Each structure stands twice: as structure tokens, then as C-alpha cells.
Amino acid sequence: MTPLTEREPSITIADAYQIQLSIVSRKLEREGVRHVGRRSVVTSEVVQKMLAVDQPDFGHLTSEMALADGDEVPTDRMLQPRAEGEIAFVLAKDLRGPGLTPADILAATDVVKACFEIVDSRIRDWKIKIEDTVADNASSGMLVVSERGVRPSDVDLLGCR
Questions:
Q1: pLDDT confidence bin for 44, thresholds 50/70/90
Q2: Helix (H, G, I), strand (E, B), or coil: what is residue 13?
Q3: What is the rounded CA–CA span in Å between residue 64 and residue 135?
Q4: pTM flag (> 0.70)
Q5: Domains of the chain
Q6: Are 123 and 136 in contact (CB under 8 A)?
Q7: Which among 13, 112, 137, 139 would be 20 to 30 A from 36, CA to CA?
Q8: Contacts of residue 23, Cβ cutoff 8 Å, sequence gap at least 6
């Protein structure tokens, strides 16, 4: 589809989060999917500069997005997939912001797991601004998370590859 920011130039990030929440809520209510997590995207300075934004954005992960190790990716559900390696933080307790620090997040984390994420976008040619990707549920597609997790203190989170 055409970017929302082209069709509605006055759209704000708050508007985009309302659109995202409406879409996710409808999936949960009408399609019987479960909420399984949240995702933070555009967290690196390099990607923020590429997209001309100064903040990360956030999305919801649902059960229909989760694949098990060895599953085939249902490519018929994908439009413009791109793959990324990620780190999944499995929380032991809920977090509430704003103002959270990395230490707060680590203190709330039970284990970290390897994650392979397939991002996708309904916005034509990935011509997205932050409002577009937020409204599109942070370009969430599918993911596979490792079975095994490790305590964050046992991993070099800054240096791992």
C-alpha cells in the first residue's frame, strides 16, 4: 500500500500507535491469536539515521507470528520479507516506562534467547517513515526463538554476534 504518511501527511506517532493497537486488538478478539510478546525496533543509531528518526518504535508479537525450530516459513503470508538476527529478552517481571535504563531491563530479565526474525511491511517498497512502520505493527512478520535461554549475566550482550 501507499505509505500512510503520503496519504495522511498530518499523521502523528500517537495516531500510528492507535492504528497499531486497533489492528492488534482486532486480531486478538476476532482471530483467536494470543499476545506472546513485544518488540523494540529501530534501536540502533545507524538504523535511526537511515530512517531519519531519533527514537525506537515498538510492536506486538502474536502467536500467529511464532514459528518452531524446523517449521517452514509460510511465504504466502509474506509480502516483502527481510531476515534479521536478534536477541529475545524473556522477562521475569513486567516493565513500565518511560525512563527505563538498561540496568532496569536486565534486572527484569529471566533469560535471553537467540531469535531469528522475519520483518515484513505492507508499505510499498519499504518507503516507510516511523509513523508508517508503527502503524504497521513495527513491521512485524514472523520469528523463531531458541528453546534454550541463558542468564544475561552469562552473555557478552554488547559483543555477541
A1: confident
A2: helix
A3: 18
A4: yes
A5: 4-154 (3.90.850.10)
A6: yes
A7: 13
A8: 137
In this predicted structure, the answer to whether residue 13 has a pLDDT above a threshold of 90 is yes
Helix (H), strand (E) at residue 56:
none
How far apart, in whole angstroms, are the C-alpha atoms of residue 49 and residue 54? 8
Residues listed for the chain: 161
Tell which residue, 37, 38, 11, has the closest CA to residue 130. Answer: 11
HSE value, Cβ hemisphere, 13 Å, CA-based, for 50: 11
| Residue 48 CB contacts under 8 Å (≥ 6 apart), including other chains | 42, 54, 55, 56
Largest CA distance in the chain: 48
Question: Look-up: residue for cell 502467536?
Answer: 63
Percent of the chain with pLDDT over 70: 99
How far is CA 80 from each of CA 76, 83, 120, 121, 135, rounded to the nearest angstrom?
Answer: 11, 10, 5, 6, 16
User: Which has the minimum average pLDDT: 4-13, 57-66, 112-121, 151-160?
Assistant: 151-160
